Amino acid sequence: MTREVLLQAPALRAVGAYCTGTNNIDLAAASELGIAVFNGPFSNTRSVAELVIGHAIHLLRRVPERHAAARRGVWLKDAQGANEVRGKTLGIVGYGKIGTQTGLLAEAIGMRVVYFDIEARLPLGNATPVATLEDLLSEADVVTLHVPQAERSRNLIDAQRLTQMKDGAALINLARGHAVDIDALMQALAGTRLRGAALDVFPREPASRADPFESPLRDSDKVILTPHVGGSTMEAQRNLGVEVSEKLRDYLASGAIRGSVNLPELSVGPLRSPARLVHIHHDRPGVIAQVNATLSAAGLNVSHLHLETQGGMGVAAIDVSAALDAATLASLQAIDGTVRVVALTQSGAMPLTAQASAA
Question: Per residue in 233-289, pLDDT tens?
Fold first, then answer.
């Protein structure tokens, strides 16, 4: 959803992304237009974490090579290079929602867990933080990436970092396609230092199931390749549908904002007064004072006001004593710094809404 698309929908109040990432939505434009964007960051956490553990087991047992050989009619029955995960070290790069869940599952099957994050994060279970990424790479038998879509994550695992990994270690990437230098990984897999890799995301992915998947990794017997299905389970899809839909319902009905990726959190209860004004604005001095003055001039009494600000944006939910008419809405929209004005009543949003235009 580009800026151009959003500009064609002046009545649009919210967007629900039924996934974790919001890369395909212009968040800056959505904020400028007062459109709340919601996603489902918690719904697929367990699904991704389980797949990581499954990949770790397969890689430490050298299943990819044995699977490839068996399909060619070669019977590689031996214990050479195959290990249990018990007692091995899992290194988690990015200790957020998925990273922490992965760590707990890994401990449950006997793995030691270390993690690295650029932000200070409290460990869960017996996980141990390390000071640098290099420290993690040198310790871990399996390295799993759980980093965000950010420029600092691009080629995070490159040729140099691959040489810093422990001899016989394995790499798992279910996070972002750009986080691993694929050419460097292919070179590392061609040698004996790296045990194997499992990738679910890639720098270039097919736009649809009808398009071919192209990657040099297809030629390696030491790799598990999956088509971006880390969070694709029936359970995750159901949870995702519920999570995002509930956020949309609460925002559209009451103005409550839970887990928006571009607007501040706003915890308000159900609408019990005759009307509620939702005022989205740039966070600058005097805006709320002018809003109150406008409501007072219209003869409206304010029974409750809840204001939150974040990242230069402010959202106020203001309960008033009567419905707001078109003239009052227009006056509120005219206040310098106003982005969007919405009036809610017991029966839903009033048809009279106002929205700023993005240049």
Answer: 999 999 999 999 999 999 999 999 999 999 999 999 999 999 999 999 999 999 999
Q: Both 37 and 150 in a single domain?
A: no
* φ and ψ of 29, to 5 deg: -65, -40
pTM assigned to the model: 0.85
The torsion of the CA quartet 135, 138, 143, 148, rounded to 10 degrees, works out to 30
- Out of 225, 252, 274, a domain closes at 225
The domain total for the chain is 2
* Residues designated catalytic: 176, 205, 228
